[in-house]
Specification:
With 368 residues, the protein is mainly α. It is built from 13 helices and no strands.
Amino acid sequence: MVFAIGQLTSAIHLEHVSWLEIFSFIIANITLWVIWINEVFYYEKYGDSRRIDFFSVITLMFFLGNLAFELNMDSRFWLETTGGASYFNWLLIACYCVIIIQYFLKGRHLGFNRDMKVSMGLLGIYILSVLPFALGLFAGNIWVVGIYFLPLILPRIANYYLYRGVKSETNFPHALERSQLVTILTFGEAVIAIISTYPLSSSLYQGALLFFAMAALFMFYMAQTFVGINHHQEANVTPLFYFHVLIFLGVNSFTVGLEFLADHHHVNLGLWFFITGVVLFSIGTLMTSTYNQSIYLLKKKHYLVFGVGILLFIIIGFLIGAHILPLSIHTIIMVTLGSRYYFMIRRHARERNNIPHPDPKLNLRDFS
């Protein structure tokens, strides 16, 4: 997955980047996320580290790595040719097939329940949806390529019609941990991008300021998901994964943006990627607050304040333009203010409910 994320952010570095290439970037983000999440769903419910689980995961890693190697954001790759796109889709089908085999082998061992059948059916639909591309029957177009959004839509429909009133079998703490892991890996790619694009030897202040801007985003995310969320609850994790789609796309857009800001050919586009990435990330992180402990749930007035803050970030960011020094300082200030406001909400909630503030000197591992 680390290699895949690296390929994801580097593949869009093209001579010409139009809205079609940006659309391809979004699709690639969603594709990688869907593979990751479907494997997470399997492991949370049925994975028991048997030998077949190890071998199947290794096989999935092999196909995913090769799929990442084939990532190409050039719209001509999808719209004018079928060769490269065909190979990409065969690898995507192979990834889905591995997960289906995992469910099938587990079903033979434990017996097939409804959840296994639904999961295998959905994966089968995903395979059928991209099979025409893999067979080279036709090249993609802007409407047909939208089929890659199907794995985001169908599970929501299936949950509504097939799982209403059914107790979730998903391990919430593990689901949150997996979501945090892929987010941390994505931030790791941002770190690499900052250091390689703005090394201290040639860019003393730019790299440092962008690094602290990235760190401010990371601290806001960890404050919400590590400290704010109730880790001991039983809840439907599907919304959590949807929220992390925005977070995943946001961090990757932020990474592409800071790289483009150093490229005079794409500097204006870099500003759009940078600001959009921060906004998507912030919205996704705030949406995870629906899983907070009851006393820490955000109210409408809190969302309104955060919304105004995000709007100010957008307006001031575009007024600043593609100037790294003021833009990075602006990002650090706005994200830090958001974090301080978030902790102020928590402090007031404890005081209203006569709950003592946590003492960090006790080194308790539950900071809620």
